[in-house]
Structure formats: structure tokens, C-alpha cells
Amino acid sequence: MKSAIFLFLAIILLAPASFSHEEAKSNFVRFDFALAGIAGLAALLILTAISMLYGKKAKDGTKKTLMAFFILAAIGTTLYLAGGTVYTNMISETGGPVHWHADFEIWNCGTKLDLIDPTGLSNRVGSSEIHEHGDDRIHVEGVLIRKNEASLHHFFELTGSEFTNDHLMLQTNGGYSEMTNGQTCNGKVGKLQAFLYRITNPNTVTKTGFIYEQVKLDNAGDYVLSPYINVPPGDCIIIEFGEEKNSTDKICETYRIAIERGDVRGG
Fold first, then answer.
1. What number of other Cβ atoms are within 10 A of residue 27's Cβ?
2. Where are the beta strands (DSSP E) in the chain?
3. Do 221 and 165 contact (CB within 8 A), yes or no?
4. DSSP 110-175
5. Residue 194's closest CA among 160, 172, 171, 225?
6. CB–CB of 237/104 below 8 Å?
7. pTM of the prediction?
8. What is the pLDDT of residue 121?
């Protein structure tokens, strides 16, 4: 019985380490704190159930073993969570947790597309650190091991889509929508393009408010979001498939409202 309990607990407590890597997709190493907490709680509940079922009949040696495993599960989970938090913050390029937002819109030949809606209790598409809540907003919440985790390519990868400079395969509620350079769009050769609305004076307070500019991104997949919680000064990103052009007339609702209020103006 002791051997069976030890093996079972080892499987449960080592599960977070087994699933704490995203290397298969992104080469970013991360501790899975949620899974660790669930594994630790499961181990404690199982030990409690075993104690209630066999506690009175168990020999003194078995009782001591159960208590030792109970303490091991509690301490092991605590050390994993505490040690993982400290280690992650130490190696993080952001120096700890961040909270960034950026709004985005995706247009295919003049038709606005929406990323697949979130399902389940988490109410998000993506990872706990980088996700979307069905609100056309990229949420970056937590510790980034590398700043380029907040790149557009990584965001779309985490949400089940693919995004490169010449190709976008977007997962929507109706299936995948694919846009690739050279495809026909409204009778003309289409090109995948990305435009960025960004604030040029995010840390300067002026009477006229923020100043924005629109730029066309050459390497959109590698673009890393600006580090701001509010939009603006957080980014507005327009991804558009259509005839090649130097600028777009599309704009995120947050920027449009800010401009109309006079909080933001063009440079």
C-alpha cells in the first residue's frame, strides 16, 4: 500500500513539471502554476479520503506514512509555487508581471472577421498570459519570459491561428479563413498588410492629449505590443487583406472614440 500511495502521489505532483513547457510550439519555458495547485489539492484530497477509509484499520506505520505523504504534498506544492514564482520573475525579461492591452481588427476583402469566441469557464482564447476574450483585444497578463512572447505571431499561434508576413489562417466560429498573398480579392491581386496606430508621446502629458501616428508594419508577425494597460496609449492593429496600399481607413473603436473626444490627435 505504501508503494502504491507513493507512486500515485509522485505522478500527481510531477504532473505540473511534465506539462509546464510550451517548447513544442514556442520555445518558451514556463511553470504551470494552475496545474500545480490542482495537482497539490488533488493529492491532499486523495490522502484525506484514504485516511478516512483506512485510518482506523491501518497500522501505526501506515498512519505515519500517510501523515508523511500529507506533509510532503503540502510542502511540495508550496515550494513548487513559491520557487517557480521567484525563478520565473528572475529570468523574465519584463522583470515580473505585466498588464498590457492592444486592440485589433482583421479585414478580408472589406469584410470584418472575428477570432473564434472563447468557451468554457476561462472565457478566453489563448494562454493565461496572452489571450483574447471575444472583445477584439489582445490581453497580456502575467510574467513574460521573453518580451517577444507578446508578438503578433505568438498571439495568433496561441489562439489556434497562423500569422506570417504573407499568410494568415484565422480560426473563426465558422471555421478557418485563409488569406495569402497573390489570392484574388474583389477582382484584384490581394496582399496581406498590417497597419499600426500608436501613440508617439505615451509618457508626456500635454494639453492636447496623446499624439498618434499610423505606420505600415513590414514584419508584422514579429511586432511586439506596446507596454500599456489602456488603449490608447496601447496599440491599435489593423490587419487587412486586399489591394496593396500605404495606409488604411480602418481604425479601432477605442482610437476612434478617443479622437472624437479630443483625447488623441494626429501628429
1. 10
2. 97-108, 111-113, 125-126, 130-132, 137-143, 162-163, 167-172, 175-180, 184-185, 188-189, 191-199, 210-216, 236-242, 264-266
3. yes
4. TEEE-PPPP-TTTT-EE-SSEEE-SSSEEEEEEE-SSGGGGBHHHHHHHTT-EE-SSEEEEEETTE
5. 225
6. yes
7. 0.72
8. 84
Which residues touch 165 (CB under 8 Å, ≥6 apart)? 192, 218, 219, 220, 221
Average pLDDT per block of 10 residues along the chain, 267 residues long: 46 45 42 58 69 61 68 70 58 82 98 95 91 97 89 96 96 96 95 97 75 96 96 97 97 97 90
d(CA 231, CA 166): 27
Q: Is the dihedral of CA 239, 245, 251, 255 positive or negative?
A: positive
| The amino acid at 240 | E
Chain segment 130-152, per-residue pLDDT in tens: 999 999 999 999 888 889 999 99
User: Dihedral through CA 63, CA 65, CA 68, CA 74, nearest 10?
Assistant: -90
Residue 194 pairs with which residues in a beta bridge?
239
Q: β-strand 130-132 against 137-143: which pairing, if any?
A: antiparallel
CA distance 186 to 260: 32
Q: Give, in order, the Cα–Cα distances in Å from 3 to each of 56, 63, 66, 163.
A: 20, 14, 11, 49
